[in-house]
Design a protein that fits this description.
About 25% of the residues lie in helices and about 25% in strands. By secondary structure, it is an alpha/beta fold. The strands form 5 sheets. The protein has a 7-stranded mixed sheet with strand order 6-5-4-7-8-12-11, with helices on both faces. Strands 2-1-16 form a 3-stranded mixed sheet. A two-stranded antiparallel ribbon has the order 3-13.
């Protein structure tokens, strides 16, 4: 649901910049020291995606209302991060990386396609007293090559897959970076129709935003995750019909925003009677070569814990993971942020 990538012209301007090509650490600079100085600064008065409290009582206003839930943030609370290595994709001003570090993560890598938020991200690091690495990675394909040699206990891939031409290619490139038994939070717009298809945003019928392309059906999304050896173990669902923003999400199919917590497993996970999935994984060139399975198999084993308690009614008995179609359709949806720490607002007191 998050509108992260409305920066096409900016991408053209910055794609050849030194920082874009090298992925330097955030530059340290002088930030306003007093409330008066901050209030009159371009930093405070500029455009923000997330709402961020930079000094006590001084909130840089983002694009979302305070009661709109941020599902990947809520899912992050269900992961034991102490001592873990984390990757966040499409970090904007760095809300999720801040929370990862405050949750005890030992190392955090924030990323974005271009360095369009690095000044604000540096300010957030400064005012929140946290440190994490940042890298501009360009288009979100081939992440196993762009982040070669990296291994993560937890990866957050949220608000991203509907902004790319090929969601499956992004997942395939990212998969090799996840440690064995590691956790992935993947959050995207989906439809609830009974099909294995993706809806294309022709004529902006789903969203007017120019970088939004695909809504997969929940059944297809579930299938692709299991095809890439990712076992859904928990999820949260926000129905688009409950959205109260200036962005139009509702179209002619029932849709919503689904956040899924997946565990990296050693084999694909076909349901009973599906012989094609395992056969395809073993013999198709695309499955074997587009994901660097050799790198995935060399990854160390993570001991990261999932602390949530998913509803057992939606677990698949045959393969021991969540049935996303059933969970999205039947579980109680999240329609509002019950507390500030469930929202798109980051406050200085927040630890989650």
């Amino acid at each position: 649901m998050n509108e992260k990538h409305g920066a096409g012209s900016l991408f053209s301007q910055l794609r050849n910049s030194f920082e874009y090509r090298t992925g330097l650490r955030l530059k340290r600079r002088r930030f306003p020291k007093t409330a008066g100085e901050l209030k009159s600064s371009s930093l405070y008065n500029g455009w923000w995606y997330y709402s961020v409290e930079l000094m006590p009582g001084m909130m840089a206003q983002g694009v979302y209302p305070p009661d709109l839930p941020l599902l990947p943030r809520m899912m992050l609370k269900r992961c034991a991060l102490a001592g873990m290595s984390c990757l966040d994709l499409g970090s904007m001003e760095g809300l999720i990386p801040v929370l990862m570090r405050r949750g005890g993560a030992q190392a955090v890598l924030a990323t974005d396609a271009i360095p369009h938020c690095t000044e604000k991200m540096g300010a957030v690091q400064h005012y929140y007293g946290v440190d994490f690495e940042y890298k501009s990675v360009g288009l979100m394909y081939d992440l196993d090559k762009k982040l070669r040699g990296r291994a993560f206990d937890l990866i957050n891939c949220s608000g991203l897959l509907y902004h790319v031409f090929s969601p499956l290619l992004v997942l395939a490139g990212m998969r090799a970076l996840l440690k064995k038994n590691g956790l992935l939070i993947v959050t995207t717009n989906i439809t609830l129709d009974d099909s294995y298809a993706m809806e294309f945003n022709n004529a902006g019928r789903m969203q007017a935003e120019a970088n939004t392309f695909w809504y997969p059906s929940v059944k297809l999304f579930d299938y692709l995750l299991r095809y890439l050896k990712l076992a859904p173990v928990d999820c949260l669902f926000f129905p688009h019909a409950a959205a109260r923003t200036n962005v139009r999400y509702v179209f002619n199919k029932t849709s919503g925003y689904l956040s899924v917590l997946c565990r990296a497993v050693d084999d694909v996970l076909p349901t009973r009677g599906d012989e094609w999935m395992a056969e395809s994984a073993e013999h198709s060139w695309e499955h074997r070569e587009l994901t660097n399975w050799r790198q995935a198999e060399r990854q160390p084993i993570s001991d990261i814990k999932h602390t949530g308690q998913p509803d057992s009614r939606y677990m698949r008995e045959d393969i021991g993971c969540l049935d996303l179609s059933m969970a999205a359709a039947e579980s109680v949806p999240v329609v509002t942020a019950q507390q500030g720490s469930d929202s798109h607002f980051l406050r200085l007191a927040d630890m989650s």
